[in-house]
Amino acid sequence: MNRFFKLLILVLFTNSAYAMANAEVAAQDSNEVIKLNKQAYDNRLTSPDQTVAFANKALAIAEKAGYDKGIGEAYRVRGIGNYYLNQASAAIHDYLQALESFAKIKDLRNEAKVYNNIGNLYLDNNYANSLEYLKKSLAIAQKLNDKQLMGASYLNIGNVYYRKKSFYQALTYYDKGNSIFQSIKDTVNIIQALQNRGVIYFNLNEYEKAEKLLLAANKAAKEMDLNKPVASTNLTLASLYIAQGRFDDAEKIVKEGQAYSKAVKDEKLESDYNYTTYQLEAKRKNYARALTYLQLIFRQDSTIYTSNESTQISMLQEQFKQQAKQRENELTIQRQQNDRIKFWAVTVVAGLLMVVIVLLVSNVKRKTVTNNKLTELNEEVSRQKDNLDRVNHHLEEIIDERTKDLQIKNKKLSEYSSYLSHQIRGPIATLRGLMNLEKEGLVDEKECINMMDKCVSDIDQKIIEMSDMLNDTTKSVF
Predict the structure, then answer these.
(1) Does residue 451 share a domain with residue 390?
(2) Which of 32, 247, 286, 328 is the most exposed place for a label (fewest CB within 10 A)?
(3) Are 312 and 246 within one domain?
(4) Domain total for the chain?
(5) Quick one: 317 and 375 in the same domain?
(6) pLDDT tens column, 339-376
(7) What angle do helix axes 88-104 and 302-440 make, rounded to 10 degrees?
(8) Cα-based angle 110, 114, 118 (whole degrees, multiple of 5)
């Protein structure tokens, strides 16, 4: 029984250690995913292709770790990168995948962010769909009191009204967004608000206000190395300078803007710059150059292009919905199977618990009997201990006597040793002297032998005396 409990504890401890190790690895993976997603998002206005690259790395790690929130954010940020690269189909695919991931973990705030992104995606081809998603995002942001998301929704709704040429309504939303971003000190979106308001004032022919706002946005964007805002701001500034007849200023700002649009690899912006250059050359009456740029930007009718793009996005959405419905059905079946498995698992666990309880009760009874026996043994041990204590006491007395006797003998031995050393040293010294005299031939050999014999006899006598003294403790050395 004890072995069973030890094995159970070992299994629990091993599982706990394994779980802790897995938790630590998961935490490291989550931190790496968060870091990569942030890097991807921060590059959206500078290098959208880097945004896609970092998001792909984050997605791979998040999927391997099963980190749902990281998966959703990686899809969302990659969608933003594809949006800035004018890859609408890839962007909507990523956004819908992000929505699925966030809905799975009931992350309402991030769902609202994705609605905002989808609203932006529809901005150029379907105003009704764009407003639907943006207002859905705004409603969630207001419910959560998320200032940053509310400000972003206001700016994007303003963009819809701007494209519908409802300039004053657009300006109202831009002002709301700007007010929020000023309060939370969101520098990037403050730049966007400056640019948007500048565009509105340009369309309202209030050129002085427009130029002031656009130059402020341009300066701030350059200070933060935000290539996309610089390029798009310069585009409006160029149109403003053309309208004012400031052609040299327009040419200068166009060249700068083209360099920034190439840096972010935005083909649409580059095409817009070609069109602005065409307008500039036409105003200058350089008709040959104007025609060159007009041929450069020639393409299919824009209405057909935007219609096809909108249809493609809608088809992707519908396809995604069908896939989502199919996955939901599969999940329902899987849940039913899991419920059955859980039922039988609970039944088995309950049975095992009953067995464990019976074993525990039996074990308690056995322990009671064992404890009684141990009590009796303890009493017997106590009695034996008392006897041992008495014996030990007697032994201690004997040991004390023996110790005293040994101390006396040790003292005697020390005295005998000193005495023997003193008594034997003389005859030995004589022997050495005789040996040296004999070597030098200063003494007769026979006489030397007699004298050496006498010395040996003296040493032997001293040893005999020493032996007698050791055997007779009553004799004194001196």
Answers:
(1) yes
(2) 328
(3) yes
(4) 2
(5) no
(6) 888 888 888 888 888 888 888 888 888 888 888 888 88
(7) 60
(8) 170
Regarding whether 225 and 299 lie in a shared domain, the answer is: yes
CB-hemisphere CA count at 13 Å for 463? 7
Q: What is the pLDDT of residues 247-274, one digit of tens each?
A: 999 899 999 988 888 888 777 888 888 8
End-to-end CA separation in angstroms for the chain: 77
CA distance 50 to 58: 12
The answer to whether residues 446 and 368 belong to one domain is yes
Percent helix, strand and coil across the chain, each to the nearest 5? 90, 0, 10
CB-CB neighbours of 31 under 10 Å: 11
Indicate if 192 and 312 belong to the same structural domain. yes
Residue at 169 is within a domain: no
The answer to whether residue 463 sits within a structural domain is yes
Give the span between the Cα atoms of 384 and 150, in whole angstroms: 87
74 belongs to a structural domain: no
Say if 136 falls within a structural domain: no
> Which structural domain range is residue 296 located in?
186-324
Q: 29: burial class by Cβ within 10 Å (0-12, 13-18, 19+)?
A: middle
pTM of the model as a whole: 0.57
Query: Do 427 and 463 contact (CB within 8 A), yes or no?
Result: no
Q: What residue spans of 224-246 are helical by DSSP H?
A: 227-244
Q: Report pLDDT digits (tens) over 71-86.
A: 999 999 999 999 888 8
Please name the amino acid found at residue 358: V
Choose the final residue of a domain: 324, 340, 368: 324
220 and 280 share one domain: yes
Distance separating alpha carbons of residues 85 and 261, to the nearest angstrom? 11
Q: Which helix (H) or strand (E) holds 455?
A: helix 445-471
- Residue in the block written with tokens 């921060």: 42
Are 300 and 386 members of one domain?
A: no
- CATH number for the domain spanning 213: value is 1.25.40.10
Q: How many CB atoms lie within 10 A of CB 420?
A: 18
